[in-house]
């Protein structure tokens, strides 16, 4: 694969609890960091409600638009867990009770009514591969769509299990230069530098610390030696603008 | 406005630093909670990169689809701050230097080059209303699109300034019942309860604490007395299922 080819991913965060503000999502940052190590860039994330039409539409739009789609949430045993149903509908295939998951679930005995609810978690779309996790029922993969739990610890285990099946390009590396300097002080030379290096993503992020304003400049690209050279240029640029490096 | 009318919002989180996993977004939960108090429900959120085509497309899609759109990020003075340009392009209007913001920015003296960068923050689309904040250059509003900073403290001030201009429906209230009970134990009666109350959103969120599994049941709706009654039903349902209420 040529080094400048981007392998893209979209994260679909499914759940009313995130949209209502009740629960703070922490899965996106974890997924982005892990995928990046595999050379896969998260190019979009969406938080969508537990509503069939919206989930199906988002899956179908995003699986066309991105190399990979990762969903989190909605794969438990209750009525609001409809992600498996939606993935099946998006791909136009039926759900079936996966025998391996069924065996796993039946290992722990329960009254029939509770077992019936648990077995909802054994339902996967026809043609799905399982994404195993040591702590319970697995997630699954259909083509380029990976379906994972919403609970961060479980999601992380599923993602780890999914990684070997992913094919990325060169991982994006970053260099950060932090200084007490305002964004305006460095804006012009920074913009000129970015224009000369279109294949590198240079970001500028202001902060205030101990009552002083500062800026973190972050360069992201795939060539480590180029990033090292750019990092030196960024430090010179800041010093020339009258800024004070923090390290 | 009839009480069952939903006023919807979409949050567009603009920034490579969120998508790369470098920065953890905390704005969505804050915006969702504040808007909810105004009777406005966040029905979708998207995290999108600092890329013109994608920002313009997302703004134009979402301002049609939702009553309100709130953007965060990309309104500083550097080359990667392109939100104002994108909003102008989405609405097909030019940017201009807003005299009031210009005066504010020129209050603090600076060399011409630095001033020129700062004045990028005075550019607003024609027809925009300002969304003031006490700590610096304002955000702005064009029709149903509100453009705010990405830095949480600044964003929060802008949102507070924007709230009086918003028109919501009845605020959604919630009741949470937490118990040591597995989701599977309550899944069936919970599903039956949800079927009987389609206008209330009943969510089920598992957790593990001190090595024990538990579930939080969250009921969301606009009628407080109905929610109180439902809360009692949820407690009875859990006890009947053999669960142990935590409060």
Give keywords:
six-stranded mixed beta sheet; alpha/beta; homodimer; 39% helix; 2 domains; Alpha-Beta Plaits; four-stranded antiparallel beta sheet; Molybdenum Cofactor Biosythetic Enzyme, Chain A; 247 residues; elongated
What does this structure look like?
The structure is a homodimer of 247-residue chains. The first copy, chain A, has two domains: 7-165, Molybdenum Cofactor Biosythetic Enzyme, Chain A (3-Layer(aba) Sandwich); 173-245, 2-Layer Sandwich (Alpha-Beta Plaits), CATH 3.30.70. Helices cover 39% and strands 28% of the residues of chain A. The first copy, chain A, has nine helices and twelve strands. The first copy, chain A, has helices spanning 16-19, 27-37, 52-65, 83-91, 99-106, 112-119, 152-162, 183-196, 224-240; strands at 7-14, 40-48, 68-72, 95-97, 123-125, 129-131, 139-142, 145-148, 173-180, 201-209, 212-221, 244-245. In chain A, the strands form three sheets. The first copy, chain A, has a six-stranded mixed beta sheet, sandwiched between helices. In chain A, a hairpin with a 7-residue loop joins strand 6 and strand 7. The model of chain A has no long low-confidence stretch (mean pLDDT 95). Strand 2 (40-48) of chain A pairs antiparallel with strand 2 of chain B, so a sheet runs across the interface.
């Amino acid at each position: 694969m040529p080094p400048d080819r981007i392998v893209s991913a979209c994260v679909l965060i499914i759940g009313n609890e995130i949209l209502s503000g009740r629960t703070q999502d922490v899965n996106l940052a974890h997924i982005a960091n892990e995928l990046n190590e595999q050379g896969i860039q998260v190019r979009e994330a969406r938080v969508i409600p537990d509503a069939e039409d919206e989930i199906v539409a988002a899956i179908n739009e995003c699986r066309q638009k991105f190399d990979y789609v990762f969903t989190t949430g909605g794969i438990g045993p209750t009525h609001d867990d409809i992600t498996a149903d939606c993935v099946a509908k998006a791909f136009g295939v039926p759900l079936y009770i996966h025998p391996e998951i069924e065996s796993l679930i039946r290992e722990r005995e329960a009254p029939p009514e509770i077992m019936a609810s648990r077995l909802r978690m054994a339902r996967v779309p026809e043609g799905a591969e399982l994404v195993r996790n040591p702590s319970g029922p697995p997630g699954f993969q259909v083509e380029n769509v990976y379906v994972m739990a919403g609970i961060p610890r479980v999601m992380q285990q599923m993602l780890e299990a999914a990684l070997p099946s992913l094919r990325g390009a060169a991982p994006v590396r970053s260099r950060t230069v932090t200084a007490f300097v305002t964004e305006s002080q460095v804006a012009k030379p920074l913009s000129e530098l970015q224009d000369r290096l279109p294949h590198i993503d240079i970001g500028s992020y202001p902060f205030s610390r101990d009552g002083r304003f500062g800026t973190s400049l972050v360069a992201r690209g795939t060539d480590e030696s180029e990033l090292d050279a750019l990092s030196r240029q960024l430090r010179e640029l800041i010093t020339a603008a009258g800024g004070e490096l923090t390290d």
